[in-house]
Amino acid sequence: MLDHTYESWKTRAAGLNFRHQAFIDGKFVDAASGKTFDSINPATGAVLAQIAECDAEDVDRAVAAGRAAFEDGRWSRMAPGDRKTVLLKLADLIRANLEEMALLDSLDMGKLVTDAVTIDAPGSAHFFQWYAEAIDKVYDEVAPTGPGDLALVSRVPLGVVGAVTPWNFPLDMATWKAAAALAAGNSVVLKPAEQSPLSALRLAELAAEAGVPDGVFNVVPGFGVTAGKALGLHMDVDCLAFTGSTAVGKMFMQYSGQSNLKPVWPETGGKSPNLIFADCEDLEAAADMAAFGIFFNQGEVCSANSRLYVERAIKDDFVEKLIKRAEATQPGDPLDPASKMGAIVDETQTQGIMRFVEDGKQTANLVTGGERVNVDGKGCFVQPTIFDDVTQDNPLARDEIFGPVLSVIPFDSENEAVAMANDSIYGLAASVWTDNLSRACRVSDRLMAGTVSVNTVDALSAQTPFGGMKQSGFGRDLSLHSLEKYTALKTTWIKYKA
Ligand code: NAD
Question: Whose CA is nearest to atom 43 of ligand 1?
């Protein structure tokens, strides 16, 4: 393993060569307009690179490249076992470049490089490997139609998949879409978030090195209102996979209606509840995970456990435990392995978080944090923050803050806890802590969430579907179910002489 000391991360970061052009038809190219935008390191304010600012013309070029590749079958009609070989090589290449991939995300959006190199980058390799290994083991069906008829029911790739992704897990969100869509035989045009395009551009280059043919995987960095909208409205994009905010997810549904009725798969926001019952035997573990559930990745996690419902009898003690953990999770330089939390993605997001915090100081009981801070005199950093005695109607309990801000709400009964947990426009994830098996089953059953974690938080794997209910979106990333989004069911009916 390579050296992961603070000094070596800084040295490696200084020597990085950022890919800054769009990746279209197997080549790095400038935007047709020649325009660029700055990629900024939120921990320092430094400009990392000038990125090609793609717009509708570049999206057209990328979609045309994806379409040509799809039609001539260079990938779409390759045997699944051969696609597997290429995608396994890509997984190996990500592993061979693990430190670089981790650094790109850390520098681009402020996450701890230690997390990026142990979670995000290995996760990306793992997910590519998982879909690669799966794709030649998925069987189609023969319908029970009877003699004289052979009806084949198969899953076929859709064509050109547009993917629009957020900045909180840049490499992994790109991977969740691309790995499944590519494994299924589609071409992909990916628009990464404007705050964090660097890892997606390097990923495209590694995919080409692995043997993904030209035109099959394209990356068009740029802004949502131009490049993202152009993909959403494009008449020749067959499916749009989106991860981001609920407001923009709704726009993609409209873009589809205004264009070619492409299926849209929105994975959107969350305000996940974490329920702590007094009959939980290991409250220290519950506190560890409750803190992790809101402070990991600076709270910039769609499924962050941002609403903490605690049974009143144990609430004050539990909040004390959380305060200790928050105090031990202060932000620092994302490249320093000693740092416990990184930088917020940018100035806009930092100011948005601080507006919630300042309003919250008037309406709830701030027990720790609550300030914006600098690290080495600069950057976008927010202290881990906890508000106690938050009421259910407070914006702190209703809105997605997408920062390290926890709202604690006491409850008196199981029914009340479930009712408050479900009282949200979101339904992405939920957690329950109890050692009463019947209660665990009963409460999990009643919680309206795509994933319920019992005696842990944010349980997630390649084998299990991830996605939401209500305004957290629909469709599922991960697991074999994700392949359903990127394929259509096709019936081929053959008459024969019985
Ligand atoms: P965002 O919705 O602002 O942006 C997401 C993507 O959409 C970006 O690529 C952006 O450029 C693009 N976009 C923005 N406006 C657009 C428009 N008008 N037309 C077309 N494209 C547009 O979200 P964000 O701030 O990047 O990410 C944070 C959000 O992502 C949070 O709400 C979070 O909960 C959500 N998220 C959800 C999941 C999930 O799996 N459900 C996972 C991660 C993040």
Answer: 302
Q: What is the CATH number of domain 6-268+473-490?
A: 3.40.605.10
Task: Provide the residue ranges of all domains of the chain, joining segments of one domain with +.
Answer: 6-268+473-490, 273-462
Task: Report helix, strand or coil for 405.
Answer: strand
What residues does ligand 1 touch, defined as CB less than 6 Å away?
164-168, 173, 191, 193-194, 223-225, 228-229, 232, 243-245, 248, 251, 267-270, 302, 400, 402, 428, 468, 472-473
The sign of the torsion formed by the CA atoms of 64, 205, 478, 195 equals: negative
Are the CB atoms for 467 and 474 separated by under 8 Å? yes
Helix (H, G, I), strand (E, B) or coil at 60: helix
* CA-CA-CA-CA dihedral for 282, 285, 289, 290, to nearest 10: 50
- Give pTM, 2 decimals: 0.98
pLDDT digits (tens, 9 = 90+) for 173-223: 999 999 999 999 999 999 999 999 999 999 999 999 999 999 999 999 999
Helical H segments across 120-168, by residue range: 121-135
- CATH ID of 273-462, from 3.40.309.10, 1.25.40.10, 3.30.2020.10, 3.30.420.10: 3.40.309.10
pLDDT digits (tens, 9 = 90+) for 359-404: 999 999 999 999 999 999 999 999 999 999 999 999 999 999 999 9
